[in-house]
Amino acid sequence: MAKGKVEIYSEACKSCRYCVITCPKNVLGTTEAVNQKGYQYVVALRPEDCIGCAMCATICPDGVITVYREGA
Amino acid sequence: MEKIYSRASGIFEGAVSGFCPGCMHSTICKIVTQVIDELNMTDHTCFIQGVGCCGLSITYLDMDTISAPHGRACAIASAFKRCAPETLVFTYQGDGDLASIGLAETISAANRGENFTVIFVNNGTYGMTGGQMAPTTLVGTKTTTSPYGRDPGEHGYPIHMCELLSQLSAPAYIARVTCADVPNVRKAKAAVKKAFEYQLAGKGFSFVEFVTNCPTNWGMSPLETLDYVRDTVLNEFPLGEFRAK
Ligand SMILES: Cc1ncc(C[n+]2csc(CCOP(=O)(O)OP(=O)(O)O)c2C)c(N)n1
Ligand code: SF4
Ligand code: SF4
To answer: I need a surface site. Which of B129, B167, B198, B200 has the fewest CB within 10 A?
Structure first.
């Protein structure tokens, strides 16, 4: 089971991709789906690899990502 | 699982910031509100906005605020803090606001050692008005008002606010930080916390300069601006603590 979990507030994502290049486990990415503002919002493509390090949430300007970790 | 990272209560519930994609104005709003939560001061804070993109924070940050006329945030913060010494007071200003039209107010408040904190957003341009040259614009950089690049002979050199204010005796805390990668976001947050703690301890003027980006007016993708900040802008504006007394 994954050690961590990310929750993404997709309407606030602006697709800057800072989190995508920052995640050490390559969990995040975008798809064809867009939010109401037209941005290709980030999704957890490989949620099972998440270790709950919160690096994505730390670099995200817009406070899009909430992070949970097992036994924090 | 336990929640280990989230937005702070100083951001309106469910709000989407008006800043452009990748703009570090958003990062600064995020970490400043997190620090204020950690200090339990969200209901006891007033921030004074300058004029510029920082004004977009008015619909994003759920705290008491005053909009200052262009450049005058430090004067208003001085008066407000003197009248309400228990309130955590910070100004939120861009480089056009703080280092150009408001330079006199900034230096005077620092020189008086006024007990509030300045959050200074140095993105090297006038963002809100469409990318004009700012006092902080790097030599050679093309902007809408320096179409051949900033020329020191005509426009002077970039102004270094931390170094300049470090010449004064009164300021208690002066630091320059950035948000271009995770370690630096963490350091920036620690610097903001230290500045606010100095203020709460009554130590006087504290100043945190953020070296940031403006993807929109730099004409770069957000990811390109991260490299540009790290590889180019930081050579002109070195990071660090200039004063911590
Ligand atoms: C007295 C006055 N002069 C000029 C303006 C126009 N004006 C609005 S924002 C701005 C510059 C803002 O640039 P900066 O402080 O660098 O903030 P940024 O938008 O880059 O965050 C100017 C010149 C104004 N609003 N008031
Ligand atoms: S860093 Fe934030 S705003 Fe940027 S793509 Fe990731 S979730 Fe979206
Ligand atoms: S114009 Fe520049 S400074 Fe203003 S919100 Fe957009 S990226 Fe940020």
So the answer is: B167
As a whole-number percent, the residues of chain B with pLDDT over 90 amount to: 100
Indicate which atom in ligand 3 lies nearest the CA of residue B24: 8
Q: Which CATH class is domain A3-70?
A: alpha beta
Q: Identify which of B209, B243, B58, B235 has the alpha carbon closest to the alpha carbon of residue B122.
A: B209
Q: Closest ligand 2 atom, CA of B22?
A: 4
Q: What is the pLDDT of residues B131-170, one digit of tens each?
A: 999 999 999 999 999 999 999 999 999 999 999 999 999 9
CB hemisphere CA count around B23 (13 angstroms): 26
- Amino acid in position B51: V
Contacts of B220 (CB under 8 A, 6+ apart): B213, B228
What are the domain boundaries of chain A? 3-70
Q: Which ligand is nearest the CA of A30, by number?
A: 2
With beta carbons less than 8 A apart as the criterion, state whether B223 and A17 touch.
Answer: yes
Q: Chain A partners of B222 at a C-beta cutoff of 8 Å?
A: 16-18
What is the token pair recorded at B138? 């790097």
Contact A61 B6 (CB under 8 A): no
Please give the domain boundaries of chain B with CATH numbers for all domains. 25-244 (3.40.50.970)
**Neighboring chain B residues of A11 at a CB cutoff of 8 Å:** 16
* Closest CA relative to residue B37, chosen from B73, B58, B61: B61
Distance from CA of B1 to the nearest CA of A (A): 5
What lies within 8 Å, CB to CB, of B1 at 6+ separation is: A4, A5, A52, A68, A69, A70, A72
User: Measured from the CB, is residue B27 less than 6 Å from ligand 3?
Assistant: no
